[in-house]
Write a structure and sequence with these properties.
The structure is a homodimer of 239-residue chains.
Chain A: H1 12-21, H2 31-37, H3 43-58, H4 60-68, H5 74-88, E1 90-92, E2 95-97, H6 100-105, H7 129-137, H8 140-144, H9 152-158, H10 167-170, H11 180-203, H12 207-235
Antiparallel strand pairs in A: 1-2
């Protein structure tokens, strides 16, 4: 077996294939997520997921700022900063966007505490468990990995189950406004994919770097999977 | 003498006064900077300053992203991100800004290498010395200091010598376009001051924290002073 140190770099097509192969362990295949996206979840399970997803979401700008601060390429930064703007919102010139975190707040109590560092009051305090774990795992340097990788978006964008787009059919009790965030994510995720994948394919050009990129991707996938494990234990998985 | 640990916190007015007192060691008082801003510099000295200033400038978005990634308050992030947008430029909706780094590139060769990680070709390789030093000193965590301080802007904005606004009178040979960056900085620096100072006064509320804020401010002032020392040694100071 050839070791990664001496092996030739994969070409772009091979490397992209290797990245996409990791999609097998993407969290959409987790039993808890499958349950959510096939209409089998109770309101309590949905609310539990939302509360935990919200904790994940409020850490996104922190993560992306860590990526930016490790990136010396202005062109890449100009693209990447959009991820922070998408979540924190902005008002520049006449253009305004309340941002994804604000949209997430719509699911909470709507009170001031939902807009700060803490999420909406979760169904019970146990709902915070994944969020806390995520913050401990945050490890910006590992995630930043030279200022590049979120190629898992590439996996997500191709899979219609990734965003809860079938929720309106399955869960009529959810206020349509509450789903705006996810609707907006579809086109934004596609844009993020294009940039994330291009940067990854451009920058990881030796075999050891490409192997490292796969490890970083796996780390991200493991976080999402672990969040689903925690939610499955807390809220249960219906048959 | 009361130790910082047990002393009462300064009130906002006292604390702001202490911060502003540090202005005595602001780099505008450095002999090299005084020379520049009183019309006594040669074109070589001006170009040397520009090349070094440019290296400082291209590190600004990296520094501000490090601050963002240490900041859990979305409202503060929404204000702070403007500093990155100012330097990297952006295109959002119909609103466009080439950014301060692009403006800095106007001073260089204008070739593609000026737009990447490296600055314009300096008058000679020695011109890079401060830039390299700054990158080593970058120490984002120290600068971030809990996600807050750039209160030295408060000092800068009040002093008309801070931005080279008298350069058009002193140095007729400089293309007016080359000074746009500095013209734009005046109003932007004022906005940054307001946010930086408010955040600092709001967050550093115990005496030990306030003492720490003064140390962080001094660190920033020392970097700027050290840059001017390096330039004075390299390019000389005219009487």
């Amino acid at each position: 077996m050839t070791s990664a140190k001496t092996a030739a770099a994969w070409d772009r097509v091979e490397f992209e294939t290797k990245l996409r192969e990791r999609g097998r362990s993407y969290h959409i295949h987790h039993p808890f997520n499958v349950m959510l996206n096939t209409g089998k979840a109770t309101p309590e399970q949905i609310r539990g997921w939302v509360a935990n997803r919200f904790y994940y979401q409020i850490a996104i700008p922190i993560k992306d700022a860590a990526v930016l601060s490790n990136c010396n390429d202005r062109e890449v930064r100009r693209g990447w900063i959009q991820r922070i703007l998408d979540h924190d919102g902005f008002e520049i010139g006449g253009v305004k966007d309340p941002g994804g975190i604000e949209a997430g707040c719509a699911w909470g109590s709507g009170g001031p505490h939902a807009r700060g560092d803490r999420g909406p009051a979760p169904p019970d305090p146990g709902g915070e468990v994944c969020g806390r774990r995520l913050r401990q795992l945050r490890a910006p340097r590992a995630l930043a990995g030279g200022g590049v990788l979120v190629a898992d978006r590439a996996l997500r964008a191709r899979d219609p189950q990734a965003a809860p787009r079938h929720w309106p059919e399955h869960y009529g009790w959810i206020e349509p406004d509450g789903l705006n965030y996810f609707r907006n994510r579809v086109s934004r995720a596609r844009r993020d994919v294009e940039q994330g994948l291009a940067v990854t394919l451009d920058h990881f050009t030796t075999r050891p770097m490409q192997e490292r990129a796969l490890e970083i991707l796996q780390f991200k996938l493991d976080i999402l999977w672990a969040m689903n494990d925690a939610m499955a234990l807390k809220y249960g998985v219906n048959p």
